[in-house]
Amino acid sequence: MDSSDQRRKRKRILRQSYSPHHFLSVRSLVMCFSFFTSLCLLSYTTPFRSSAYRPVQVVSSLSLLSSSISRKVKSVQDFDGSLLPLKIESRVFFPDHVLLLVGGGKLEKSGAEELECVYYGKFDSIDNGDFDKKNVFSVDEYDGFRSIVRCPLPPVNYSSVVNLKRRGKNGILGEKVGFGVDSQTVNSWENVAYEATLDGDTAIVFVKGLNLRPDRESDPSQFRCHFGLGKWGRSGRFMFTTKALTAAQEVVRCSLPKSISRNPDKAQGIRVTVGATPHVRNRAHKRVLVPSVVKIFDSGPVDKKRSLGVKYELCVCTMVWNQAPAIREWMTYHSWLGVERWFIYDNNSDDGLDEVIQELDLENYNVTRHVWPWIKTQEAGFSHCAVRAKDECNWISFMDVDEYFYFPYSTPGHQNFRALGYASQNSLRALVANFSSSSSAIGEIRTSCHSFGPSGLNSPPPQGVTVGYTCRLQSPERHKSIIRPDALDTTLLNVVHHFHLRKGFEYLNLPQSTAIINHYKYQVWEVFRAKFYRRVATYVADWQENQNEGSRDRAPGLGTEAIEPPDWPQKFCEIWDTGLRDFVFTNLADPSTGLLPWVRHSAD
Fold first, then answer.
1. Residue 572: left (phi > 0), alpha (psi -120 to 50), or beta?
2. Quick check: pTM over 0.85?
């Protein structure tokens, strides 16, 4: 065969070998192989909630260890052995505990007995069952997406990444981890976005670590809010950014992205944080995102009045820690004076406060307990409460559970703000309602406080603080406020005792002849010493700190150690004042038994 015939034959073979049909069949095989390979990889790296799921845990850079640790988690199971979607979403490292935010389902408070906190050392192996464990401090509800688990701090030289395990039926941990782990990051409480809420077409984000000046509005141009559905930094496509409108203390207000403001329901569950652009020598540097544990959550209407658009005339908001023995007397008394709605911000109580609040709510006191796990954030908590109350309340009082409004006998010369004579039931509500109808410019009503001492007692008075403590200092100290939520400045600036108001509104100081607050500040030592644990206000030094020892926020001459002075029962006693005691017995005691309602309840 000549060379030309051979060339023609090779061309025919090549055309047959690389025909379009042949090429498509090869490409199809390659695509199928790639698809199955990807599927296998996904099944290994993506949490499908299967018992065969084995992701790798990587310790955060915030680990207490000098070297990194990685381990395999064997499975995700619930307490009965079936599949469970619960996962640890975030961790926050506090000075005295580690807070775990657990998503995927609701944990009951009783679950603390079924869980253990797990800690890994440098040479521990989870496959061999090597780890340390401690009892859970507490379990609590949080928002509509997550629960809270509080764990003790890790032992020395252990990882800061605290995990959870279920207890075995015999009290020994099994091999299987009870929760999937979504993130190994441990957030420092010194630098984290910790809470957020909606206010109209804006989002309000609460942030630690911005280091803004107290009681001052800051320049908002250096801040942005970032919204997204996934993990930060995983994909910029899922993030919206809006400008900050105001910034003050720990509160940054931003406009909502347009897609969310048109339909606020879309905001439910969205993550949000704040980005800051630091300026050094008048030069802007790269924007830095603050670590965040925040998901936006709006619980919606909680009672019929709110759902119908009808507001309560008078509400009260407070932040408490372990005030279960005191809260019933305080709420019963002020409900008699006309308080219609209660917001209790629970700051990590472990004394059964939640059970007392549930009882009071069942008794129609219209009280809501809001879990607020963030320490030393009273100002931020009150700002958050003011936003919540705006749709429910015409007026809201910010006060502590050891503070009681008292109306002295009104003489003919003191009738500007209330009726002549003794105060009657609902007098406090009538007083604020009078301002609602007569003066649209008053946005805040301030009332002076008288500080009461132990009054010679060595143990808590069995009939309550209003009856037991009757000796006080002569001159009033500070004041507390009742505010109109719609009159507040958009910064929500407050210094606990009072808020900044919008232009056009002003505050009013009530004369002491009209109303006074009895502040049972210096109670018997076993009650007072609890103040040394921690104070709730952000910008007030704790009692054990050697700062501002001469301030009125502290006990004069007490020092920084919780050591009872020998003359404590006689301290802070300059004037005997039985006005509120007599008022309480006259108006609230049972006519047949003489028992006060909070005493009668404890006796039942």
1. left
2. no
